[in-house]
Amino acid sequence: MAFRLALAQINATVGDLPGNRDKILEFVSSARAAGASLVAFPELALTGYPPEDLLLKTHFVAENLRLLRELASSVQGITAVIGFVDRSRTGELYNAAALVAGGRICGVYHKCALPNYSVFDEKRYFVPGDSPQVFRQADTVAAVNICEDLWVDDGIYVRQARQGARLIVNISSSPYEEGKRAQRIALLRRRALATGAAWAYVNLVGGQDELVFDGASLVVSREGRLLAWGRQFEEDLVCCDVELSSGTKKRVVLTLPASVSAQSARLLLARPVVLKAEAEIYQALVTGTRDYVRKNGFQKVLIGLSGGIDSALVAAIATDAVGKENVVAVSMPTRFNAGATKGDARRLARALGIEFKEISIEPLFKAFLAVLAPHFKGHSFGLAEENLQSRIRGNLLMAFSNKFGWLLLTTGNKSEMATGYCTLYGDMSGGYAVIKDILKTRVYALCEFFNTKEGREVIPRSVFTRPPSAELRPGQTDQDSLPPYPVLDALLQDYVEAHRSADEMARRKPGGEWTARVVSLVDRSEYKRRQSPPGIKISKCAFGKDWRLPLTNHYRPRIASASGK
Amino acid sequence: MAFRLALAQINATVGDLPGNRDKILEFVSSARAAGASLVAFPELALTGYPPEDLLLKTHFVAENLRLLRELASSVQGITAVIGFVDRSRTGELYNAAALVAGGRICGVYHKCALPNYSVFDEKRYFVPGDSPQVFRQADTVAAVNICEDLWVDDGIYVRQARQGARLIVNISSSPYEEGKRAQRIALLRRRALATGAAWAYVNLVGGQDELVFDGASLVVSREGRLLAWGRQFEEDLVCCDVELSSGTKKRVVLTLPASVSAQSARLLLARPVVLKAEAEIYQALVTGTRDYVRKNGFQKVLIGLSGGIDSALVAAIATDAVGKENVVAVSMPTRFNAGATKGDARRLARALGIEFKEISIEPLFKAFLAVLAPHFKGHSFGLAEENLQSRIRGNLLMAFSNKFGWLLLTTGNKSEMATGYCTLYGDMSGGYAVIKDILKTRVYALCEFFNTKEGREVIPRSVFTRPPSAELRPGQTDQDSLPPYPVLDALLQDYVEAHRSADEMARRKPGGEWTARVVSLVDRSEYKRRQSPPGIKISKCAFGKDWRLPLTNHYRPRIASASGK
Fold it and tell me: Most buried by CB count within 10 Å: which residue of A222, B128, B475, B477?
């Protein structure tokens, strides 16, 4: 028999219990109208994900339970699977899925595998469930599990399949990472073949602080065939008819009321296009930025536009995220800025169609130098004076932000954040660090992608070809103090994302000879990262919740050999 | 028979494997010289605590294992209990204690209860042990467990006692919190009576980022009598003779080689004085500051001295932490600073004997206003201009910090951090936030304590009596926009430290009527706290690792009633 299911990949907002309830009800109606027997929502759809320490507030959990019951009373003619926070009588919390049908909560599943690595802290809040909770719906036996339950080998799904589940619905809030969609497809196929069940995977959409959820829900047949998929980075209701063998005779925990007939016309699915590598990352950055801006109540964003490649990319992303009419760029040259750079900033703003201001900071820089002169006597121009320029710019941008309520976006990339090639309270000032997890070499690739997407040279060619420089002293370039970016980025991937040893890194060709310098730069910059604004994670290990290094840290990795011995 | 044990409460440094090894060996020698049969070191003494994501580096764990083996070969004539990271053949990590004697590792205990709440993330790294591992030493059966193992009711200690342990040694790295020593004594007494065993508790000493470990090791007889205690906030070797009934006949896992005779002369213990409330907190702040400064390689610290109570306290603490010759204070008045405030800053610096600079920021403030004037036309003086003054000060202080390598200490208190009554990149600039977890009302109490301790009016009386003000506009006082501090602080304790609901807070008398305002201020300031420097935790819930609220957060607690209904 064919079973019609719907996957509601919604953009929930953390803490917005009434708003999330309303959105869930809206998608329940759409799914019912589409003739689905069952509609599934993402993990913790009611609270938003991750709710973090809101879970320590008993009133927050109580309110989520109250709204779930209220919501359930409106669900008729369809079964809904809704992620929420359950609480035992003794106060333990569960990451849970409610089976809602016939106007009531018919069953509850508790997540068994609680992730507590990378950005996840679920053992801080939840205790694990251990019951497979299969249920009968129409002629089928189905089961629900939650996110990590899918990823852990020999997990709860084994028991669910043994109890006869022909359809396994996994509700997830799985943050985007480069290449994760392909991983999910491969895993779901493996699980389908192992269990002999069809799998439906519904994932959250939207940005939440440093995380971006990419949706991209999936349905896989018990033979491992990909039957349907949802849009990436957008809300979607994925409907799909799944052929299921009839249910087992085994005892099941729960029999749900019959839903609407599954006989209605076969859906025409407009299958969304799957994004290619750079496009996918670019869209993640746009989504993260848009949701941070909008969910935090900002209308406009502000960017310090230097004429360099990093701020060019951030301006491009911002324009796609909130609209060119909501982006203000400020260029703040000093004596050290080449005319070409200033010109590029202006040209780029014009090409993007965003508001542009130019303010020379030369008089402010001079005023600071004058005030400091008696105290700095006998010391030559150095880091303090370089940082001063960056901090004057930060001050001006924050003054605009405070005066007009614009959100300041920072423009530092991951290579800079890693090596500390950035100024605390200077260019690091701002509410959101759009490209914090993008290595410099990829910044170029994303800018190329942007120009290609636009079909014209929005970001001027000279921005790509000029040697990168902070322009804080005469003739400065990044490569005065850093290895060439391709070498640097490869070493950073080793050290930051793979936690490789300095010894292994030293054997890398070319570039291994830079190991000691790079390791030392990364280790010594921890204090800067600790005070940096949040930014969008797209890699296996970003400088955010998944990077918890001590500030006070005397560990100095040994490099036994830089010669490959 | 009497058993002489030694508790080595050392100040380990995170990541400093060779340094910690050397320190352990030094204390092993002292304990042996004192005639002890057994010497115990704190939890993870070899790596320092908490090592956080250093544990994700396989080379770090390997190095800790290598050094443990090396260290063991030097331990003769005594049994040492040493905290380290153990690794299984399949790569799982354990928070472990090695029993070292006769030049080798004789046994290993794995921590069973892994804390994953508050500031603790141990389930991120470790898997739990589940073996009691009692061992025979001389005529006694003893057991070791680790930190949280003591705190969990019906924990592993029950099985250790059932297997005949007459002495239970708990090695801890337990961060200081107000009143925690008394809690530990009460708990140890309860455990001693329940198990019929004597308990020895050894705790780490020193500061590590936001945590301060207070030492204060304890020995309790099986009748629950407090036999010995270690100094607070200082390294110490606590030696104590414990009467133990002879060991059980039950099978034990391990028999350790005989140590030196326990017949040597009874030790004369100079029992350290126990600190009173304010003194204890003050000492925690001094210890945290000193260790952050020293372990991060700084010689001098820098403070923006306003003439107000907060910076007065920080200057006092800094002077005790690193010595008056290493503290530089800078006063940076504008047109809005009263002459009295400026005078107090100068007077305080003189009384403390610290270097003092005064720099008027008026010309810089004017220069900024002039540059911004064309852009701010038609807007009146407001928050942007107030913050600007604070940020100019931040810039100047950071210029000094960059030029001379001095660590900038911030002076904001917890009431300000909670309500956002502070300027990002302004007065929040700095590497370490000394009084970040101290509510304003307690700032006054600690200043009183300081003057009393010094026996003279170091902090001028007028600093206590002047109404608190940021002096960023004419006639401003804190109470223009905040409730009176005693009311504010009581509400903050409810909301921040106890996660109470707004409803409960609204019933508080007096002050409940401020609930909505305070809750909203706290919720809206999350973005500032996220970028604030680390500071010393002394409360149940500080704004650090134990405060993980989402930035994007639409939860608005309902206030059903402000009238107590």
Answer: A222
Q: Is A424 on the interface with B (CB under 8 A)?
A: yes
- How many CB atoms are located within 10 Å of the residue B88 CB? 10
- Residues of chain B in contact with residue A59, where contact means CB-CB under 8 angstroms, are 501-503, 557
Phi, psi (deg, nearest 5) at residue A88: -80, 170
Chain B interface mutation, best of A379, A553, A558, A559, highest count of B Cβ atoms under 10 Å? A553
Work out the mean pLDDT of chain B and round it to a whole number: 93
* A13 contacts B552? CB cut-off 8 A: yes
A355-386 tens-digit pLDDT: 999 999 999 999 999 999 999 999 999 999 99
Intrachain domains B2-262 and B278-472 with the same fold: no
CB-CB neighbours of A182 under 10 Å: 10
Architecture of domain B278-472: 3-Layer(aba) Sandwich (3.40)
How many angstroms away from the CA of B1 is the closest CA of chain A?
43
Cross-chain CB nearest to B117 (options A124, A375, A534): A124
The CATH topology of domain B2-262 is Nitrilase/N-carbamoyl-D-aminoacid amidohydrolase (3.60.110)
d(CA A435, CA B227): 58
Across the interface, do B550 and A15 touch by the CB < 8 Å criterion?
Answer: yes
Report the first-to-last Cα separation within chain B, whole angstroms: 64
- In 3-state terms chain B splits into helix, strand, coil percentages (rounded to 5) of 40, 20, 40
Q: Which residues contact A476 (CB under 8 A, 6 or more apart)?
A: A336, A469, A470
Q: A414 is written with which tokens? A: 């991951």
pLDDT of amino acid A564: 35
Question: For residue B111, what pLDDT is reported?
Answer: 98
Q: Is A277 helix (H, G, I), strand (E, B) or coil?
A: helix
* pLDDT tens digits, B235-292: 999 999 998 865 555 556 566 665 444 333 334 445 677 888 899 999 999 999 999 9
Which H or E run includes A67? Answer: helix A58-72
Q: Which listed residue (A106, A147, A239, A422) is catalytic?
A: A147
Contact B398 A382 (CB under 8 A): no
The residues of B that are catalytic are 43, 111, 147
* Section A416-445 average pLDDT: 97
Identify the closest residue of chain A to B359 by CA–CA distance.
A371
DSSP lists the bridge partners of residue B95 as: B85
From CA A148, how far away is CA B220, in angstroms rounded?
45
pTM for this predicted structure: 0.95
Q: What are the chain A neighbours of B407 within 8 Å (beta carbons)? A: none
> How does DSSP assign B125-165, residue by residue?
TB--------EEETTEEEEEEETHHHHSTT-HHHHHHHTT-
From B53, B363, B375, residue closest to A547, measured CB to CB: B53
DSSP 3-state assignment of B456? coil
Q: What is the mean pLDDT of chain A?
A: 93
* Domain A278-473: assigned CATH number: 3.40.50.620
Return the structure tokens found at A28.
Answer: 């329940």
CATH of A2-260, one of 3.60.110.10, 3.55.10.10, 3.30.420.10, 1.10.1740.10: 3.60.110.10
Tokens at residue B431, please? 């590497």
- Of the listed ranges B56-70, B125-139, B381-395, the least confidently predicted one is B125-139
Q: Where are the domains of chain B?
A: 2-262, 278-472
Judged by CB atoms closer than 8 Å, whether chains meet at A550 and B60 is answered as no
Cα–Cα distance for residue pair B8/B42, rounded to 1 Å? 7
B376 CB within 8 Å of a chain A CB: yes
Nearest-CA distance from B37 to chain A in Å? 32
Alpha helices in B236-361 (DSSP H): 277-295, 309-322, 339-352
Is-contact A388 B395, C-beta < 8 A? yes
Which residues of chain A neighbour B402 with C-beta distances below 8 Å? 382-384, 387
